[in-house]
């Protein structure tokens, strides 16, 4: 008889955490929405004139959730590359907090 080795549950592999710890982003409904939005775009960035495909694409809420945009309406989703996702995030921040 060998030693009994405690079997620890393996941590599930997850996507990189979203900045804000919002359980919404871990929900199966959100994951399904994100997958749909990215696949609908053929995995290509939908920013005008971009069309870039990267290993990691972002499903962006066109109208942000905290601005009342729908969480899970496919019409409120667009697929963005990391560059355009960052541009949008910065633009939203500037609009929200005022560019000084
Ligand atoms: Zn792009």
Number of strands: 2
Widest sheet, order of strands: 1-2
Helix content: 25-40%
Give, in order, the helices and strands.
HEEH
Structural class of the helix and strand makeup?
alpha+beta
Attached small molecules: zinc ion
What is the first-to-last residue Cα distance? 70 Å
Quaternary structure of the protein: single chain
The proportion of residues in beta strands is 5-15%
Radius of gyration: 18 Å
List low-confidence stretches.
none
In short:
With 100 residues, this protein is an alpha+beta fold.
Characteristic key phrases:
alpha+beta; binds zinc ion; 29% helix; 2 helices; 100 residues; two-stranded antiparallel sheet
Q: Can you tell me about this structure?
A:
The protein contains 2 helices and 2 strands; from the N terminus they run H-E-E-H. The protein has helices at residues 28-40, 82-97; strands at residues 58-61, 77-80. It has a two-stranded antiparallel ribbon. The longest helix is centred in the last third of the chain and has 16 residues, at 82-97. The protein starts with 27 loop residues before the first helix and ends with a helix. The model has no long low-confidence stretch (mean pLDDT 88). It binds zinc ion. The site of zinc ion (ZN) has 8 residues, from helix 2.
